[in-house]
Amino acid sequence: MPFDPSDVSRGPVPNDPVEQLVVLLSRLPGLGRRSARRAALKMLQDPQRLMLPLAGALNAAAAAVRPCRVCGNLDTQDPCNVCRDPRRERGLVCVVEGVADLWALERGGAHRGLYHVLGGTLSALGGVGPEDLSIQPLVERVSAGEVEEVILALPATVEGATTGHYLADRLRPLQVPVTRLAQGVPMGGALDVLDDGTLAAALRARRPA
Asked: Given phi > 0 = left and psi -120 to 50 = alpha, else beta, which region is 39?
């Protein structure tokens, strides 16, 4: 039976090496079936320069990269380089949905504090509750007494707003200021696709949650 390309996200990987490569590439964000075929063809045409170095880098990253036990960032060290940096403002913690958002903020250089990765947002339809996110570890970090402000840098979506309100309620008894991003983040926008200037402006204009 020929391989059905209609569902490449969850189905079995085919035995043919070329088709394997296309299917696995198409599972990456932003790469559909057609884009994956183009990328696969490019690598196959020059495997020594493009494919083998990529395979080595993937193997090395898979073996070395791990989640940071403090903030949830991905790094080769645990705690990660951000958490270990003595120049960071230890009392300023920026809460983000995922590692992609953390990397976006770091790319712009607008935040000089620490981070906390939730691992998602609350979603009743998606079946994601508080116990599925890194919320209790955040509460414990704030309860330890070193945090002076929590910035909620969550996506401007219904789920992001719901999560922000929930976090503000959970943190309110700890009497630590909780702020959120203001101007510059459009409704429905994800942080990792915004430009650096927009992210910097949103951080500077944060307001109480």
From this structure: alpha
Q: pTM for this structure?
A: 0.76
Token digits of residue 101: 């958002």
Question: Which strand (E) or helix (H) includes residue 199?
Answer: helix 196-204
Residue 75: pLDDT band by 50, 70, 90 thresholds? very high
What are the pLDDT digits (tens) for 125-173? Answer: 999 999 999 999 999 999 999 999 999 999 888 899 899 999 999 999 9
- The C-alpha angle with vertex 105 and arms to 101 and 106, in degrees rounded to 5, equals 115
Within the chain, strands assigned E span 66-67, 74-75, 89-96, 113-117, 149-153, 178-180, 207-208
User: Rounded to whole angstroms, how far apart are CA atoms 32 and 16?
Assistant: 19
Q: What is the pLDDT of residue 186?
A: 64
- In whole angstroms, how large is the CA radius of gyration of the chain? 20
Which H, E and C letters describe 175-187, residue by residue?
CCCEEECCCCCCC
Query: Which residues pair with residue 180 across a beta bridge?
Result: 152, 207
Instruction: Classify residue 4 as exposed, middle or buried by CB count within 10 Å of its CB (0-12, 13-18, 19+).
Output: exposed
Within 10 angstroms of residue 154's Cβ, the number of other Cβ atoms is 24
